[in-house]
Amino acid sequence: MAVAVSGLLDEARAWLSAALDGPFADVRGIADLSSAYDRRREWELKLGAAGLGAIGWPVEHGGRGATIADQVAVAQEYAALRAPSRIAHVGVELAGPTIIAFGSDAQKARFLPGIASGRELWAQGYSEPNAGSDLANVRTRARLEDGRWIIDGQKIWTSLGMIADWAFVVVRTEEGSRGPKGLSYLLVPLDQPGIVRRPIRQMTGDAEFAELFFDGAVTDADNIVGEAGQGWAIAMATLGFERGVSTVVQQMQFGNELAALIEVARANGKARDPIIRQRIADAWIGLELMRHGLLRTLSDEATEDLGNEALTSKLYWSRWHRALGDLAMDVQGLAGEVAQGNDYHFGALTQMHLASRADTIYAGASQIQRNLIAERGLGLPREPRGTV
């Protein structure tokens, strides 16, 4: 049975406030994925022990059976208290729900407790050098030998790839197959001799991503989700889970960034500039539109009718956030271009501006999103595809 909103929200608020005002004050406000890994692994373990690690999961799988309203309320509180971004996100929001929906009983028993408790971190093995938004172009291959899958290939732009314990990896298991056919969805341990991880340094100076090289890497034959050849359908289902409640936290973090930007504008006098004031107002309006649109999409009554409208969300928020990054630099002026300390680390607003350059690329490039809106949402003719 789902927990009432008030009870769960009060419980979460009390625990988060005590933790962030006390033993975890040092991780408060950390929004990137590459800072204070050790402390944030401790945070995930404590969050899991408090029963707040995977509240949306069914109780029988280690969750709290929370309704959408419960999850939204707690997510908003989490962001409002400036709790650190979750390095367990891929496991809790993507791997876990996929295993719950499509995994075997043995897979549920093996993997779900480690995810919900924060003991095991996960990464997503989708993108490749020639298969980014075009996931159907995956070249990484796997063959079944002596009760194990043998994997060869390369993945790139793997978030948390340097520290994750496991990855769900889309591979081609049918020789000679093309496009979405012949793909399979494997659960692969990353700490093994057949895998080399290399960090990808971003222009922010962080290394949230990694390249993964598979050279005879192995995973047990039973670590396939669904059947061989069903990888495309399961991978698409995983991406559907990504558009869920976790985006509430993202939008609340956007609100924190906007509030910080406004504070700087007031302090340095830029708030008196009528053009800057108008751009700030436009940013606030855009954020409110996002919030109300997301809540409508998540509501039980509207979800079915808003399937096509939901296609626009990624395109909208990524463009909005890039514009906020531009506004942050204009508000800061020259001060935003000066790095502090011996490591030349920029301030939070400049870091946000640099990181936002990638928003219109990752998780589906804007060009791909426009195709989805046109073809799936509006029913327009499909873009011509090549035969290669």
UniProtKB/TrEMBL annotation:
Residues in Acyl-CoA dehydrogenase/oxidase N-terminal domain copies: 41-118
Key words of the record: FAD, Flavoprotein, Oxidoreductase
Superkingdom per UniProt: Bacteria
Cofactor: FAD
Residue stretches making up the Acyl-CoA oxidase/dehydrogenase middle domain: 123-215
Aminoacyl-tRNA synthetase listed as a keyword: no
GO MF entries: flavin adenine dinucleotide binding; oxidoreductase activity, acting on the CH-CH group of donors
Xref: InterPro entries: Acyl-CoA_Oxase/DH_mid-dom, Acyl-CoA_Oxase/DH_mid-dom_sf, AcylCo_DH-like_C, AcylCo_DH/oxidase_C, AcylCoA_DH/ox_N, AcylCoA_DH/ox_N_sf, AcylCoA_DH/oxidase_NM_dom_sf, Mycobact_Acyl-CoA_DH
Presence of the UniProt keyword Cell wall biogenesis/degradation in the record: no
Cellular component terms (Gene Ontology): plasma membrane
Domain Acyl-CoA dehydrogenase/oxidase C-terminal stretches: 229-377
Entries under Pfam families matching the protein: Acyl-CoA_dh_1 (PF00441), Acyl-CoA_dh_M (PF02770), Acyl-CoA_dh_N (PF02771)
UniProt family annotation: Belongs to the acyl-CoA dehydrogenase family.
PANTHER family cross-referenced by the UniProt entry: ACYL-COA DEHYDROGENASE, ACYL-COA DEHYDROGENASE FADE29
Record's protein name: Acyl-CoA dehydrogenase
Originating organism: Sphingomonas paeninsulae
Lineage: Bacteria, Pseudomonadati, Pseudomonadota, Alphaproteobacteria, Sphingomonadales
